[in-house]
Structures are given as structure tokens and as C-alpha cells.
Amino acid sequence: MISFPLGVRGRRLLAAALLGVIVVAVAWRHASSAGAPAPLRVAPVVPSTSPARATPGAAAPRRLVVDVAGAVRRPGLVRLRQGDRVADAVALAGGFARGAERTAVNLAAPVADGEQVLVPRRGSTAAPAGAGGAAPAAAGPVSLASATVEQLDSLPGVGPVTAQKIVAYRQEHGAFRSVDELDAIPGIGPARLADLRGLVTP
What we know:
two-stranded parallel ribbon
């Protein structure tokens, strides 16, 4: 390769050409950046403050009202939830009072709405007073869910052996759901069941 010496004029032309290239490059870069679209800004997502809707299938637990009477510290109405037991009702009534016949009460039995849980006193054969302090009428129906052996024995046609069978059935199967369940007790046939209707309640 043969190089020719540049004169003053040639160096000036070369410098002018380089300057022109630089100006063109700067101008092209500026034009490219000016024409580029602005960066997209994404607005932050703000969580909704509206209250959540209740799930249609979710239902509030059913409330039960039970009358706890007899030898408890605070006899009266107590409010329970579906599936609670006699033990829960007695606890809400303050627990057993002094002299309560605990063995006559099936604490594991489930309770039903409107039921009366009767806790007898030791040695008593009659149903104890309720929340108001007045003794129930002698002709009142006997609750199969809480009656003692003595109370069941006082029913017509029910002796102490059958009364004990009724209590044992209740302890094994839970509270009676209807008077017709007495038909499952050995010694109680259709005729005796008909005599007991109106004298007992589930």
C-alpha cells in the first residue's frame, strides 16, 4: 500500500469529513431515541375494600334452648349448639348442686330443642322444682330423656325392672326421639305403650 503525504488542505478536509460523520451519527441517535415509544407504566392493583360475600352453602350453626331444672346451681333456660350434650347443659346451669343424684343423669345424651334436663336430688321420688321454684304438677308427663328409675317406676304398668331397662336403653342409644321407641324395651308391648301415651314425653 502506497501512502501519500497530506498537505494542510488535505488534513482539513479529512477533519471536516470526520466531524460530519460524528454530527450525522449524533443526529441519527437523537432521532431514534426521540421517536421511540414511551415506556408503558402499569398502575398498581388496589385491593377491593368491599366486604366479602358469605358463601351460599355456609349456614350458621343451629341454636337450641333447653330447660335445666332440679339439683343444679342455676336452674333455668340455657342456649346450646346443635350436637351439644346433657353435660354441656348442666355446665351452663352452673353444674350439679349439693345433693344431686348424678348417676341418674346421662351426661353423654344429646339434647334437643325445647327439652328439659331434669337433675333429681338423692332420695327424691318426685320431679324437683323447675326454674320458677314451683313443683310440677303430679299429673304432668314424665320426660323419657331425663326421668329417674323411681319416676319411671311410678308410671302405670312399669315396674322397677322395666324402668331400669328404659334408663339403660337411654344410656346406650341416647335421648328418646319419640314415645314409639318404648316399643324396643323388653316388657313394653303395644297395649302398655298405648297406656303410656300422654303420660310420657320423649
